[in-house]
Design goal:
Shape: elongated
Strand order of the largest sheet: 1-3-2
Distance between the termini: 113 Å
Largest sheet: 3 strands, antiparallel
Radius of gyration: 32 Å
Structural class: mainly alpha
Helix content: 55-70%
Number of strands: 9
């Protein structure tokens, strides 16, 4: 847009303004960077559009003006030059986010302008520090939250406008951290948003497919806002109101998991579950009601919500490939669901017991390695060796909790080789010792198959050791000595090049490098075979 166009926008008629802006908008529907503006031109344009949007005689051009601003606000480069206080104020007016317009619904002919203004604000607040400062003020946040809460009443905003309100609140809550305490404590946003979630979930179950998709989008945005509001809260010294918020969040998550079929909604519910603290996890389990459809009974409790999360994890792991096989590669999206299950199992004993029966039942297949197969145990064991540390650690933490923090039991189900990296990072590295008996309880009783092959299971692989042919069979002593010497030379070469480094398990349970292998070996031999202390001769008194 050149200076002549800006001059026409400033002094031309409504028709001239619409013509130039509509042509620009049509050309740049898919544009996200704009290089045709200089700083002075952008500043001038912002001032002109603020006046045009405020003028009633230019009402017919308001929609195209707002669309222009929405497109330009996609590019944060020099965006501050476009923004001024008058423009921010009139955008708040057109989006009906001022105290004067609080509680009012736009007329039918105004809804298009209001919707476009909401879209402008989402881009503007996301990309502009000035926009963030202006729209994070308490008076704006109060009006926005009041409007969102009013959707529980009979006169509701259209779903598209509800979605845009939630997008704006999400952007404000993530970029303007100071607003979270005000929303949480003063506006009781957690309680209000949870009520809205319940209402929307009910309407989604009975609505048309197109409307259901839009409802799910609104639900996802609300769940993201709820995550922002509580993600940084300390689990200690919570007030009674904050504890109640977490209880409500837990109930809301359980109801959504049971009622929704949307994978996106489930994903955001699970993300929220990673931060709901112990008060929320307790709500995932309810007393068993025989008349409840889809109930998952376990020891007189209904664990349907936990079962849904477990099924979601299984679906996420299906098709995931570790190594060079075909399929979807492991990504960070697995970490939240593993983390949520870990925290729930750590907090609620009945959840841990149920998950163990589903993932780590008594061992029967002792001939295949733990990572081989299609069971949940096999799939999670494969995650222990992926290069993505967040997923590997989450998988290890989960299995460790299921094993009641017992390293030997963990190794029994995973094999030491699979768990070695996780054990090293956690300072629990060390080969299991044969003389140590595993802690047994009623949920970890050994099967006949395991008992029969227990002493032939290789702790490194976690499966019965398959005896192969002796590679040195038929060799003479000279040949054996020759190959041993060659092996020693090859290892020495690799060590000198730095390709490998000798290490041992240190006192902290983590690998530590060794500078002098021979000296270390001598010290270990001394520790294993200490010299007896000389006894003083008895003397007659």
């Amino acid at each position: 847009m050149n200076s002549d166009d800006i001059t026409v926008i400033e002094s031309g008629s409504v028709a001239d303004l619409n013509r130039i802006l509509q042509e620009f908008n049509a050309r740049h529907t898919s544009t996200f960077t704009f290089s045709g503006f200089d700083a002075i031109g952008k500043k001038r344009l912002g001032e002109i559009l603020a006046r045009k949007l405020s003028a009633a005689e230019f009402a017919d051009a308001h929609s195209s003006s707002l669309e222009f601003l929405r497109l330009v606000a996609r590019d944060k480069t020099d965006l501050e030059n476009l923004i001024n206080d008058d423009l921010l104020h009139i955008l708040a007016v057109r989006a009906r986010l001022t105290k004067e317009l609080q509680g009012t619904l736009p007329a039918e002919h105004e809804i298009g302008v209001t919707t476009e203004a909401q879209k402008v604000l989402c881009n503007l607040v996301f990309h502009s520090a000035s926009g963030q400062r202006y729209f994070s003020r308490e008076e704006i946040v109060d009006v926005l939250m009041s409007r969102i809460s009013s959707n529980k009443e009979a006169a509701r905003w259209p779903l598209e406008n509800q979605l845009l309100d939630m997008k704006l609140l999400f952007i404000i809550s993530i970029l303007c951290a100071d607003t979270r305490v005000h929303l949480r404590n003063d506006l009781r946003a957690v309680q209000d948003l949870c009520v809205t979630v319940t209402m929307l979930a009910s309407s989604s179950a009975s609505g048309a497919a197109a409307e259901g998709s839009l409802v799910n989008s609104v639900l996802c945005e609300i769940l993201k806002v709820l995550f922002n509001l509580v993600c940084n809260m300390s689990p200690t010294n919570l007030t009674l109101g904050e504890e109640l918020d977490f209880v409500t969040l837990g109930n809301t998550c359980r109801e959504l998991l049971i009622s929704t079929t949307s994978p996106d909604v489930k994903k955001h519910v699970i993300n929220l579950l990673t931060v709901v603290k112990k008060f929320g996890y307790n709500q995932l389990v309810i007393p068993l009601d025989d008349g409840s459809p889809g109930a998952v009974p376990y020891e007189n409790f209904d664990l349907q919500a936990v079962s849904v999360i477990l099924k979601y994890l299984d679906e996420k792991l299906s098709g995931v490939t570790v190594g060079n096989g075909s399929g979807r590669s492991v990504d960070d999206s697995l970490a939240p669901v593993l983390c949520a299950l870990t925290e729930a199992a750590k907090t609620v004993p009945i959840i841990r017991k149920y998950l163990k029966t589903q993932i780590l039942p008594p061992l029967r297949d002792v001939h295949n390695r733990p990572e081989v197969g299609s069971s949940l145990r096999n799939k999670i064991c494969r995650l222990l060796t992926v290069p993505l540390v967040s997923v590997r650690d989450s998988a290890g933490d989960f299995l460790y909790i299921l094993c009641k923090n017992n390293v030997n039991r963990l190794i029994k189900y995973t094999g030491y080789g699979n768990a070695a990296g996780w054990l090293a990072d956690r300072g629990m590295m060390g080969l299991p010792r044969a003389h140590e008996e595993q802690m047994e309880d009623t949920e970890d009783s050994e099967t006949e198959e395991y008992e029969q092959h227990k002493h032939t299971i290789d702790p490194i692989t976690g499966a019965v050791k398959v005896e192969g042919p002796n590679p040195m069979e038929g060799m003479s002593e000279e040949q054996k000595e020759y190959y041993a010497h060659e092996l020693a030379l090859a290892l020495d070469k690799l060590i000198k090049k730095g390709d490998i480094k000798p290490a041992a398990i240190g006192p902290d349970g983590r690998p530590q490098m060794i500078d002098d292998v021979l000296k270390y070996r001598e010290e270990m031999l001394k520790q294993q075979n200490p010299k007896p202390k000389p006894q003083p001769d008895d003397e007659d008194g």
